[in-house]
Amino acid sequence: MLTNDVSPITVIVPAAGIGSRMAAATAKQYLTLGQQTVIAHTLELLVNHPRIALVIVALNPQDQQFPQLSIANHPKISCVNGGAERVDSVLNGLATLGENQWVMVHDAARPCLTHEDIDKLLATIDELSVNGATVDGAILAKPAIDTMKQTELGSHTIGTTIDRETLWHALTPQLFNSQVLQDAIERAQQQNLTITDEASAMEHAGYHVKLVQGHASNIKITMPEDLALAEFYLTQQGRLS
Protein backbone atom coordinates (compact mmCIF):
# COMPACT_ATOMS: atom_id res chain seq x y z
CA MET A 1 0.00 0.00 0.00
CA LEU A 2 1.23 3.52 -0.75
CA THR A 3 2.39 5.61 2.20
CA ASN A 4 3.50 9.21 2.50
CA ASP A 5 7.18 8.22 2.89
CA VAL A 6 8.35 8.96 -0.64
CA SER A 7 11.88 10.33 -0.27
CA PRO A 8 14.17 9.80 -1.99
CA ILE A 9 12.79 8.87 -5.39
CA THR A 10 14.80 6.78 -7.86
CA VAL A 11 13.95 6.71 -11.56
CA ILE A 12 14.82 3.81 -13.87
CA VAL A 13 15.08 4.74 -17.55
CA PRO A 14 15.17 1.71 -19.90
CA ALA A 15 17.30 2.81 -22.86
CA ALA A 16 18.66 -0.37 -24.41
CA GLY A 17 16.32 -0.47 -27.41
CA ILE A 18 17.29 0.13 -31.01
CA GLY A 19 14.15 2.00 -32.10
CA SER A 20 13.44 -0.13 -35.19
CA ARG A 21 10.16 1.66 -36.00
CA MET A 22 11.94 4.97 -36.52
CA ALA A 23 13.53 3.78 -39.80
CA ALA A 24 16.69 5.57 -38.72
CA ALA A 25 20.34 4.53 -38.60
CA THR A 26 20.53 5.40 -34.91
CA ALA A 27 18.40 4.44 -31.92
CA LYS A 28 15.48 6.83 -31.33
CA GLN A 29 16.84 8.04 -28.00
CA TYR A 30 19.88 9.44 -29.82
CA LEU A 31 17.99 11.37 -32.46
CA THR A 32 18.27 15.10 -31.94
CA LEU A 33 15.75 17.69 -30.84
CA GLY A 34 17.39 21.07 -31.21
CA GLN A 35 20.94 20.81 -29.91
CA GLN A 36 20.38 17.76 -27.70
CA THR A 37 19.45 14.13 -28.10
CA VAL A 38 16.03 12.85 -27.10
CA ILE A 39 17.44 11.02 -24.07
CA ALA A 40 19.39 14.10 -22.96
CA HIS A 41 16.17 16.12 -22.86
CA THR A 42 14.51 13.34 -20.86
CA LEU A 43 17.32 12.98 -18.35
CA GLU A 44 17.79 16.71 -17.93
CA LEU A 45 14.15 17.04 -16.91
CA LEU A 46 14.48 14.18 -14.41
CA VAL A 47 17.72 15.17 -12.70
CA ASN A 48 16.46 18.73 -12.24
CA HIS A 49 13.43 17.62 -10.24
CA PRO A 50 14.10 18.22 -6.51
CA ARG A 51 12.46 14.99 -5.34
CA ILE A 52 14.54 12.76 -7.63
CA ALA A 53 17.79 11.61 -6.02
CA LEU A 54 18.99 9.03 -8.55
CA VAL A 55 18.36 8.18 -12.20
CA ILE A 56 19.43 4.70 -13.32
CA VAL A 57 19.85 4.41 -17.09
CA ALA A 58 19.74 0.86 -18.49
CA LEU A 59 21.89 0.80 -21.63
CA ASN A 60 22.75 -1.70 -24.33
CA PRO A 61 26.14 -3.17 -23.33
CA GLN A 62 27.46 -2.13 -26.76
CA ASP A 63 26.24 1.47 -26.42
CA GLN A 64 29.09 3.86 -27.22
CA GLN A 65 26.98 7.01 -27.62
CA PHE A 66 25.72 7.58 -24.11
CA PRO A 67 29.15 8.21 -22.51
CA GLN A 68 29.70 11.01 -25.04
CA LEU A 69 26.71 12.98 -23.77
CA SER A 70 27.45 15.70 -21.22
CA ILE A 71 24.43 14.59 -19.14
CA ALA A 72 26.10 11.19 -18.68
CA ASN A 73 28.47 12.76 -16.13
CA HIS A 74 25.71 14.18 -13.95
CA PRO A 75 26.14 13.09 -10.30
CA LYS A 76 22.52 11.88 -10.10
CA ILE A 77 22.97 9.48 -13.02
CA SER A 78 24.10 5.85 -12.76
CA CYS A 79 24.18 3.22 -15.52
CA VAL A 80 23.45 -0.50 -15.66
CA ASN A 81 23.38 -2.96 -18.52
CA GLY A 82 20.03 -3.24 -20.21
CA GLY A 83 18.40 -6.53 -21.19
CA ALA A 84 16.90 -8.03 -24.31
CA GLU A 85 13.46 -6.66 -23.39
CA ARG A 86 12.31 -3.54 -21.55
CA VAL A 87 11.26 -5.62 -18.56
CA ASP A 88 14.77 -7.10 -18.30
CA SER A 89 16.28 -3.61 -18.24
CA VAL A 90 13.89 -2.59 -15.47
CA LEU A 91 14.82 -5.66 -13.44
CA ASN A 92 18.51 -4.90 -13.83
CA GLY A 93 17.87 -1.43 -12.47
CA LEU A 94 15.75 -2.72 -9.59
CA ALA A 95 18.50 -5.19 -8.64
CA THR A 96 20.76 -2.28 -7.68
CA LEU A 97 18.27 -0.85 -5.17
CA GLY A 98 17.57 -1.73 -1.58
CA GLU A 99 14.19 -2.83 -0.28
CA ASN A 100 11.28 -0.46 0.28
CA GLN A 101 12.48 2.34 -1.98
CA TRP A 102 10.09 4.26 -4.17
CA VAL A 103 10.95 3.96 -7.82
CA MET A 104 9.54 5.50 -10.96
CA VAL A 105 10.10 3.95 -14.39
CA HIS A 106 10.13 6.37 -17.30
CA ASP A 107 10.62 5.88 -21.04
CA ALA A 108 13.80 7.38 -22.49
CA ALA A 109 11.80 8.46 -25.54
CA ARG A 110 9.33 10.61 -23.57
CA PRO A 111 11.26 13.90 -23.40
CA CYS A 112 8.17 16.12 -23.03
CA LEU A 113 7.31 15.04 -19.48
CA THR A 114 6.81 17.99 -17.12
CA HIS A 115 7.68 18.54 -13.47
CA GLU A 116 4.00 19.31 -12.95
CA ASP A 117 3.04 15.77 -13.95
CA ILE A 118 5.78 14.28 -11.76
CA ASP A 119 4.43 16.32 -8.85
CA LYS A 120 0.89 15.08 -9.54
CA LEU A 121 2.09 11.49 -9.55
CA LEU A 122 4.02 11.85 -6.29
CA ALA A 123 1.18 13.80 -4.65
CA THR A 124 -1.16 10.83 -5.02
CA ILE A 125 0.89 8.98 -2.43
CA ASP A 126 0.13 11.56 0.24
CA GLU A 127 -3.51 11.83 -0.84
CA LEU A 128 -4.03 8.07 -0.73
CA SER A 129 -2.46 7.86 2.70
CA VAL A 130 -4.80 10.55 4.04
CA ASN A 131 -7.89 8.99 2.46
CA GLY A 132 -6.98 5.48 3.53
CA ALA A 133 -7.37 4.03 0.03
CA THR A 134 -5.82 0.68 -0.75
CA VAL A 135 -3.68 1.36 -3.79
CA ASP A 136 -0.28 -0.15 -4.48
CA GLY A 137 1.09 2.17 -7.14
CA ALA A 138 0.22 4.90 -9.59
CA ILE A 139 0.90 5.71 -13.23
CA LEU A 140 0.44 8.71 -15.47
CA ALA A 141 -2.25 8.08 -18.07
CA LYS A 142 -4.61 9.92 -20.37
CA PRO A 143 -8.23 9.01 -21.16
CA ALA A 144 -9.03 7.73 -24.63
CA ILE A 145 -10.82 10.41 -26.66
CA ASP A 146 -11.22 8.68 -30.03
CA THR A 147 -13.78 6.04 -30.93
CA MET A 148 -12.06 2.71 -30.24
CA LYS A 149 -12.39 -0.22 -32.64
CA GLN A 150 -11.38 -3.82 -32.07
CA THR A 151 -10.54 -5.92 -35.11
CA GLU A 152 -11.62 -9.42 -35.83
CA LEU A 153 -8.85 -11.85 -34.96
CA GLY A 154 -6.13 -11.94 -37.61
CA SER A 155 -7.60 -9.22 -39.80
CA HIS A 156 -8.02 -5.46 -40.23
CA THR A 157 -11.79 -5.80 -40.29
CA ILE A 158 -13.72 -4.20 -37.44
CA GLY A 159 -15.06 -6.73 -35.01
CA THR A 160 -16.66 -4.37 -32.50
CA THR A 161 -16.66 -0.83 -31.14
CA ILE A 162 -15.37 -0.55 -27.57
CA ASP A 163 -16.81 1.87 -25.02
CA ARG A 164 -14.01 4.41 -24.56
CA GLU A 165 -15.38 5.67 -21.22
CA THR A 166 -13.32 3.06 -19.38
CA LEU A 167 -10.22 3.19 -21.60
CA TRP A 168 -6.99 5.03 -20.79
CA HIS A 169 -3.63 5.29 -22.54
CA ALA A 170 -0.85 4.25 -20.14
CA LEU A 171 2.00 6.75 -19.95
CA THR A 172 5.14 6.98 -17.85
CA PRO A 173 6.47 7.54 -15.24
CA GLN A 174 4.96 4.65 -13.32
CA LEU A 175 5.51 4.65 -9.55
CA PHE A 176 5.84 1.63 -7.27
CA ASN A 177 7.70 0.23 -4.28
CA SER A 178 10.92 -1.24 -5.68
CA GLN A 179 10.71 -4.62 -3.95
CA VAL A 180 7.00 -5.09 -4.67
CA LEU A 181 7.56 -4.27 -8.34
CA GLN A 182 10.54 -6.60 -8.62
CA ASP A 183 8.59 -9.46 -7.06
CA ALA A 184 5.61 -8.81 -9.36
CA ILE A 185 7.77 -8.81 -12.49
CA GLU A 186 9.63 -11.97 -11.50
CA ARG A 187 6.35 -13.72 -10.72
CA ALA A 188 4.93 -12.74 -14.10
CA GLN A 189 8.04 -14.02 -15.89
CA GLN A 190 7.78 -17.34 -14.08
CA GLN A 191 4.21 -17.61 -15.40
CA ASN A 192 5.32 -16.67 -18.95
CA LEU A 193 3.05 -13.62 -18.93
CA THR A 194 3.62 -10.73 -21.33
CA ILE A 195 4.73 -7.61 -19.49
CA THR A 196 4.19 -4.50 -21.60
CA ASP A 197 4.71 -2.04 -18.74
CA GLU A 198 5.30 -2.12 -15.00
CA ALA A 199 1.62 -1.68 -14.18
CA SER A 200 0.75 -4.85 -16.10
CA ALA A 201 3.05 -6.87 -13.84
CA MET A 202 1.42 -5.34 -10.77
CA GLU A 203 -2.04 -6.05 -12.17
CA HIS A 204 -1.18 -9.72 -12.79
CA ALA A 205 0.00 -9.96 -9.18
CA GLY A 206 -3.33 -8.66 -7.91
CA TYR A 207 -2.25 -5.16 -6.90
CA HIS A 208 -4.32 -2.01 -7.35
CA VAL A 209 -2.79 0.75 -9.48
CA LYS A 210 -4.17 4.31 -9.59
CA LEU A 211 -4.48 6.25 -12.85
CA VAL A 212 -3.26 9.84 -12.62
CA GLN A 213 -4.26 11.99 -15.58
CA GLY A 214 -1.21 13.50 -17.24
CA HIS A 215 -0.70 15.99 -20.03
CA ALA A 216 -1.31 14.84 -23.59
CA SER A 217 2.06 16.37 -24.48
CA ASN A 218 3.82 13.47 -22.72
CA ILE A 219 4.22 11.60 -26.00
CA LYS A 220 6.51 8.68 -26.70
CA ILE A 221 8.70 9.15 -29.76
CA THR A 222 8.00 6.03 -31.78
CA MET A 223 7.47 7.11 -35.39
CA PRO A 224 9.49 9.65 -37.41
CA GLU A 225 6.65 12.20 -37.34
CA ASP A 226 6.74 12.20 -33.53
CA LEU A 227 9.99 14.18 -33.57
CA ALA A 228 8.30 17.27 -34.99
CA LEU A 229 5.50 17.05 -32.43
CA ALA A 230 8.00 16.64 -29.59
CA GLU A 231 9.90 19.67 -30.85
CA PHE A 232 6.68 21.68 -30.78
CA TYR A 233 5.88 20.65 -27.19
CA LEU A 234 9.42 21.30 -25.95
CA THR A 235 9.34 24.75 -27.54
CA GLN A 236 6.01 25.45 -25.82
CA GLN A 237 7.55 24.40 -22.50
CA GLY A 238 10.46 26.78 -23.01
CA ARG A 239 12.96 23.94 -23.14
CA LEU A 240 13.80 24.41 -26.82
CA SER A 241 14.54 27.69 -28.53
Features:
241 residues; alpha/beta; seven-stranded mixed β-sheet; 11 strands; globular
Question: What is the element layout, followed by pairings?
Answer:
Elements: E1 9-15, E2 32-33, E3 36-37, H1 38-47, E4 52-59, E5 77-81, H2 86-94, E6 102-105, H3 115-131, E7 137-143, E8 148-151, E9 158-162, E10 168-177, H4 178-190, H5 198-204, E11 209-213, H6 226-236
Describe the structure.
The protein is an alpha/beta fold. Helices cover 28% and strands 24% of the residues.
Q: What's this model, at a glance?
A:
The protein is an alpha/beta fold. It has helices spanning 38-47, 86-94, 115-131, 178-190, 198-204, 226-236; strands at residues 9-15, 32-33, 36-37, 52-59, 77-81, 102-105, 137-143, 148-151, 158-162, 168-177, 209-213. The strands form three sheets. A seven-stranded mixed sheet has the order 5-4-1-6-10-7-11, with helices on both faces. The protein has a two-stranded antiparallel sheet with strand order 2-3.
Q: Could you give the count of β-strands?
A: 11
Rounded radius of gyration (Å) = 18 Å
Order of helical and strand elements: EEEHEEHEHEEEEHHEH
Shape: globular
The share of residues in helices is 25-40%
Spatial order of strands in the largest sheet:
5-4-1-6-10-7-11
Mean pLDDT: 89
Strand content: 15-25%
